[in-house]
Amino acid sequence: MRFPYKPSPHIKANVSTTHVLHTVLLALLFVAAWSIVIQYINFGADYAIRAVFIILTACATAFVTDIAFYLIKTDGVKYTTLGERLKATLPKAFKEAPLVTALILALSLPVGIPLYAVIVATIFAEFIGKLIFGGVGSNLFNPAAVGIVIAGLAFGSTIVPPDAYAGATPMATIASHYNWRITEAVGVQFICNHCSLGHIFFGAVRGGIGEAARPAILIALVFLIYKKVIDWVVPVVFVGTVFVATLIFGSYLCLGLWYPVLHVFSGSLIFGAVFMATDPVTTPVNRQGRILFAIFLAMITLIIRFNATHTEAMGFSILIMNMFVPFIDRKTGNITTSKPWAKAAVLCIAWVCAIGLALGISIMLG
Amino acid sequence: MPFFSQRKSVVIRNSKKMTESQPVLKYLKPKTVAIPLKYMQSEHFDRHVDIGDSVKIGTKLAAGKDNIILFSTVSGKVTAIEKRDHVSLKKADHIIIENNFLDEKALLIAPVPDLKTLTKERIGAYPNGVLGMDMSVFTKKIHTVLLNGICESYITSNEAGMLVDTDLLFEGLLLLMKNSGAEKGIITVRKNFESLLDVLTNTAKKYADHPIEIKAVEDILPMCQGHTPLDVGVLTVDTDMTIAFARFLKTGIPQYERIVTLSGEGFRKPQNVQVRIGTLLKDVVEAIGGYVEGLNPKHARLVAGGAFRGSSVITDDLSILSTTNAFLCLTDIEKEVLPCIHCGTCIDYCPVGIQPVQIAAAGKSHELLEKLGADRCVGCGHCSSVCPSFIELTSTTTKAKAFYLSKK
Ligand code: SF4
Ligand code: SF4
Questions:
Q1: According to the model, what pLDDT value does residue B44 have?
Q2: What is the DSSP string of B239-258?
Q3: Cα A123–A128–A131 angle (5° rounding)?
Q4: Which DSSP category does B129 fall into?
Q5: Residue B264: is its pLDDT beyond 80?
Q6: A284 min Cα distance to partner chain B (Å)
C-alpha cells in the first residue's frame, strides 16, 4: 500500500484557533448578558432594550461586512450563481470572528449612542481594523479599538446622555472637568453624591454597556485564564501598573487609597485589560514582550486620562501600543539578550520609566 | 526562569495504551529478508556475497567505512540484489535472502557466556562497528550511565524488550558502566507502566551490590532541557541497544532480531512484533491482521518511528531495520491550516527556547535568523504539534536552520 509523504511531526494539537475564539466569544456573551441585566436593574427596561439593540446591530453589521467583503473578494474563483458565491463566502466570513470584534466594540459603547453610529463604527472596525490587512491574524490594530476610537471621534457629540445626568456620564465629569486632578473634597463629594466605589464596581454608574459589568468581567477573566486562552500576566501587570502609578499620583494630590481604586474600576479599564490587551493577534508573541506591552499600555492610558479631555483612553492607548508590537517582538526575540536576569532587569527599568514618564508628563502639563 | 520561557513539556497522550499490554507476537520465519546496503548515513559498502551464495545467521554480507558490517539475519541463499524502497525515502540496493528455516548460525566473535569476566580492555578491543556504538571517546568524565526507557509516543517496543530481556539489560548496563568508568547506573521507566516497574525493581534486587537505580518518571517530552547529558557527565544509552550489545557479546552473533511496535489507529490490531531484521513490513502488517477496514491511504500516514520525530514513508514494502523501533499508521491528522494568531504556544513548548513563530516570519533574512537563534532548532516537532492553527512550523524552522547554516 502506498501512502503520501508528510513532514514530521505526525501529531497535531487538540485545540484549534477556532476553539480559542469560541471560548472568548462565550466569555463575551456572558459579560453581555450580565450588562443587559445590570442596565435593566439600574436604569429600567428602556436602557436594557437599547443595549440589546446596540449589541445586535453591531453583530449583524460585522457579519454583513465580512460577507460583503468576501462576496467582492473571490480570489479569482468564478461562481456561476449568486447562491453558490454566497455559500462559499459564509465559512470565510465566520472565520474572521466578526462576533468577537462586534461584541467587544458594542460593549465598549455607551448606551446612549445612536444606532447608525454603531453601524458606522462596526464597519470601520471590521474593514479598516481587520479585513484590509488580510483578515484575522494579519491585522496590526485591534479591530474593536479602531471602532471605539471612530465612534468616540465621529459621534462623541451625538451620544444622548442618560436622563439623570445632564451632559455627561460621571466618568466623563471627572475626566473632562478635572482631568482626574480632583481634590479630596471634590472626590468625596463626587463619591457621596453620585455613587460609591461599590456602586461603580457593581455597575450602577453609566458608561460603556459592558464596562458596567465588572464582576462579570472578572469572572470571564478567571474563566479565560483557566481555559489557557489568555496570558494572565497582561491584565495583572496592566492593572497593577495603573494602580501603583495612580497611588503615587494620588498621594501627590493628597488623596486617599480610594483614588487608585476609582481609577482601576472606572471607564473601560478592566474591560480593556481583559478583552483588548490580551488579544493575541495584536499583542506581542512572547511573555517578556507582553509584559512590556502591558506596562507601556498603562503608561499611555494614564497620560491620556490625565491630559486629554477624552473619556475613552483605552481605545486610543491600545491602538498606539499596537503600532509598537512588531518592534517589541523583534527586540524580545533576540536570543543573545535572553538571559532571564537581563529580561527581568529590562522589565524593571521599563516599569519604573513608564510610571515616571506617565506621572512626570501629567504633572508638568498640569 | 520559567516565568519568561514557560518551557512546557509535551505530555505523551495515552498513545502507548494501544500496545503496552498486548503480548509480543513472534514473526520469526519470514520467507525472505531484504538487507539494505545502507546503514544510517553510510551508503558505500563492499559486498562480500553474490547471488547464489549460501549464508548463515551472522554471515558477513558487506563491510563499509568505520567498520560497519552488515550481516545475514536468516540462513539460506542469496537470490537477488535489487533496488528497493528504503525507510530513508531514497531507493537503495538490497540483498535478498531466501530463508531455508534451518537457522544455522555463524559466530562473529567468541561468545562470552559470563559477561562479568569481560575486562575494560577486552571491550575496548572490539571494533566499534561491531558493537553498534562508539565505546572509546568520552571527552568528559562520565559519572552516570542512564538507560532511557522512555520512548516517543506510541512506541512500546523498547519496554517489551526490557520485559523479555531484563537480565541482559542489567548485564549490559554493568558493562557500559565498567567501560565508561561511571560509578552509577540509572534506568528510567515511565510511572504509569507499573508491571515493567515491578519487574525491574525485582530484578534490581539481584544486582543489589551494584549502584543501579530504577527511576519512575512522567511520560513527557522532552526529558531534559537546556543542556546535553554528556555535558554534565551522563552517558545516555537506548535500552534496545544495551540489550543488543549484551546479547551479542554473550552469544557471539550480532543482533538479528528485534521487537518493533506496529501501532496507530490505522492498524486493525496494534501490537509489538518480534521480527528478523530485514523482514518486509507488509508481511508483518498482514500477520497482525492488516489495516483497518476501508483505510484510505491518501488520508493516512505511515510513519517509521514515533509521531514526533519519526519520518513519514511512502510505502509499506520496506524492510525493517535494526534502527526502526516502530511503524505507525495514523489517520485523522490532516487538518486545515488556519492563520497564525500569534498566541505564542509554539514558543512555550520549544525545548531550546527559540521562537518558532518569529523564525517562520523571518523568511530569508540572515541577520534576523541569527538573532532569533535559528541554528539551535533540534527539529523535535513540538512546535508543530501544539500549534492551534495547525501550521507546519517544524518544517519551516528546520529549513530556516539549513538556510542559515548554508549561508554562514
Ligand atoms: S522543532 Fe525546533 S523550533 Fe520547533 S520546538 Fe523543536 S527545537 Fe523548537
Ligand atoms: S502556536 Fe501557531 S498560531 Fe500560535 S504563535 Fe505559534 S505559529 Fe502562531
A1: 85
A2: HHHHHHHHHHHHHSS---EE
A3: 90
A4: H
A5: yes
A6: 8
Q: How far is the CA of B388 from the centre of ligand 2 (A)?
A: 7
Ligand 2 pocket check for B340: Cβ under 6 Å: yes
Burial (Cβ within 10 Å: 0-12, 13-18, ≥19) of residue B362: buried
- The rounded mean pLDDT for chain A is 83
Biggest alpha carbon–alpha carbon distance for chain B: 66
Low-confidence ranges of chain A (pLDDT < 50): 161-168
Ligand nearest the Cα of residue B9 is 1
Ligand 2 pocket member B346 (CB < 6 A): yes
* Shortest-distance Cα residue to atom 7 of ligand 2: B357
Q: Please answer whether residues A227 and A23 qualify as being in contact, where contact means their C-beta atoms are separated by less than 8 angstroms.
A: yes
Contacts of B386 in chain A (CB under 8 A): 13
- How far is residue A43 CA from its own chain's centroid? 24
- Take residue B408 and report the three cell numbers written for it: 554562514
- Upper half-sphere CA count for residue B342 (Cβ side, 13 Å): 22
Burial class (CB in 10 A: 0-12, 13-18, 19+), A292: buried
Which residues in chain B are closer than 8 Å to A285, comparing Cβ atoms?
342-344, 347, 355, 357-358
Tell me if B335 and A12 make a contact (CB, 8 A cut-off).
yes
The pLDDT tens digits for A141-200 are: 999 999 988 888 877 766 654 443 333 455 556 655 666 666 666 666 665 555 556 666
B4/A336 CB distance under 8 A:
no
Place of cell 488623596: A255
Query: Who among B341, B344, B368 is closest to A286 (CB)?
Result: B344
Other CB atoms within a 10 A radius of the CB of residue B337 amount to 11
Interface mutation target, options A2, A6, A10, chain B, most CBs of B under 10 Å: A10
Q: Is B343 in the pocket of ligand 2 (CB under 6 A)?
A: yes
